[in-house]
Fold this protein.
Amino acid sequence: MTRIAVLVSGGGTNLQALIDAQARGELKNGTIAAVLSSKADAYALERAEKAGIPGYVVARKEFASNREMTQALVAKLKELDIGLVVLAGFMHILTEEMVQAYPNAILNVHPALIPSFCGAGYYGLHVHEKALAYGVKVTGATVHFVNEEPDGGPIILQKAVDILPGDTPESLQRRVMEQAEWVILPQAVSLFCQGRLSVDGRIVSIKKEE
Ligand code: GAR
């Protein structure tokens, strides 16, 4: 059984999707063992508590740099014997210590079809503001492995979502979450925990279910 830690900074709807998937028996061979939040008042921590999952605060503001925060996170994850780290609305750039500690064992969900609308400065609602301002007709979500480059790691799953006339950043964010993020994040986590993902350079292969 792979012990999963979910790193959050805010509302935690993606965490909720994982909790719900686990309750339905859809996180095969994985268990959500901990939720780590960069903010003490993140609603995600309440979601964890309601689900009986231990929550920890590793507050960004307690550290002088992202590097120091990353080192504290790695220490906590090792102490908790975590095998898979999931970034679910985690709003800080982790430094290379995290990737070194968890090579090809960190997943991130991003609310766009990478390589569009991603990288430094593209997070949360900003991603949808930029997609609408560019005038694309289709956007979506991506789950990828985390490497040293922000949003640059090998892609595991993607799902497209139509942009509709009259969309606002908020309406688009909601549709991308409902139709894409909350679907593909639990799927990717389950595939990882079943040992069905293999990585060759940028290419992720998914083994068929046995
Ligand atoms: C989600 O849309 C997630 O994809 C995005 O922030 C939101 C968090 O919502 N993450 C990023 O933009 C990371 N680059 P949640 O806290 O309700 O899951």
